[in-house]
Write a structure and sequence with these properties.
about 290 residues, Chitinase A, domain 3, 3-stranded antiparallel sheet, 12 helices, 5 strands, about 55% helix, elongated
């Protein structure tokens, strides 16, 4: 091998080595390039929004800023690092295996759908349509004027139940209520007043009796039910139906509910679309 050839090989090796070193150095350098308007940086092809950088800088405590330029540089650098970590997590499969990451992605997807659905204000037509379809949800509950007939059982619960059943049968057969009421014992607590709501009835006597009273006709009674050391039944003196308010009086509440309904329907539509294009395989149920 001639000296000239060896010198040529050595020169080529030096050039290659220098080129490789330069590439290694430049690989880690963030080189400014011309990006699309509104893009502050691009990380492996993924853009970082300039508005996000600006909002973060504007929200910083003025005492923490050395200057606007330095603050922007720090924020952008932190966002680039964050994007690199996100990409690394996705590449490593964390989105598929880490429950916290998966939950965060689900929350982010739902938040994005809700934000897009809320981008347009709820129209008057939408508010009135929702109100007409859900009037009963805004109606004030009915109220009741009731009398509770309690029969104590100091010795025998069966005796108290028998007395109550006889009193109830007398009322249902037409005996004047006042005459039958005198045979009852005092309630072990203060009786509820007139215009009692279903919730108040449930608090006093339990949800079962409250529901029964709601379906009673005036002048009739509920079934005999155990209560404390005795039994009780309820006589319905009067019932005031619930009133539906005007749309104007509850408009803000209806508009919020209509928007929430729009967001729920948007999420349902997205999931339906994703299911149509997804290939989902279910395991055969084991016997």
């Amino acid at each position: 091998m001639s000296d000239g050839f060896r010198r040529a090989c050595l020169a080529v090796a030096v050039v290659i080595g220098c080129a490789y070193s330069a590439f290694q150095i430049l690989h880690d350098v963030r080189v400014p390039v011309q990006l699309l308007p509104g893009v502050a940086a691009r990380v492996n092809g993924h853009p970082i929004d300039a508005d996000s950088v600006n909002r973060t800088v504007a929200g910083m405590d003025a005492r923490m800023r050395r200057s606007e330029t330095a603050a922007r540089h720090d924020v952008l650098s932190r966002m680039i690092d964050e994007e690199l970590l996100v990409q690394h997590a996705l590449d490593s499969g964390a989105a598929q295996t880490n429950p916290e990451v998966r939950a965060a992605l689900v929350r982010s997807a739902i938040t994005r759908v809700n934000s897009e659905a809320a981008a347009e204000p709820v129209s008057e037509r939408e508010v009135s349509g929702y109100f007409e379809a859900h009037k009963e949800a805004y109606a004030a509950p009915a109220s009741f004027d009731v009398t509770a007939l309690y029969f104590e059982a100091p010795a025998s619960h069966a005796d108290a139940a028998s007395r109550a059943a006889a009193a109830r049968a007398a009322i249902e057969s037409g005996t004047p209520f006042e005459q039958v009421a005198n045979s009852a014992d005092p309630l072990p607590f203060a009786a509820p007043g007139a215009h009692v709501s279903p919730r108040t009835l449930a608090n006093y006597f339990g949800p079962g009796i409250a529901e029964a009273v709601d379906h009673l006709a005036v002048g009739h009674t509920t079934e005999v039910t155990p209560l404390g050391n005795g039994v009780v039944f309820i006589y319905l003196n009067n019932k005031t139906p619930g009133e539906t308010p005007s749309l104007a009086s509850v408009r803000e509440l209806v508009a919020a509910d209509a928007l929430r309904d729009r967001q729920e329907r948007a999420l349902e539509a997205l999931l339906a679309s994703l299911r149509q294009t997804a290939h989902v395989e279910l395991a055969t149920a084991s016997r």
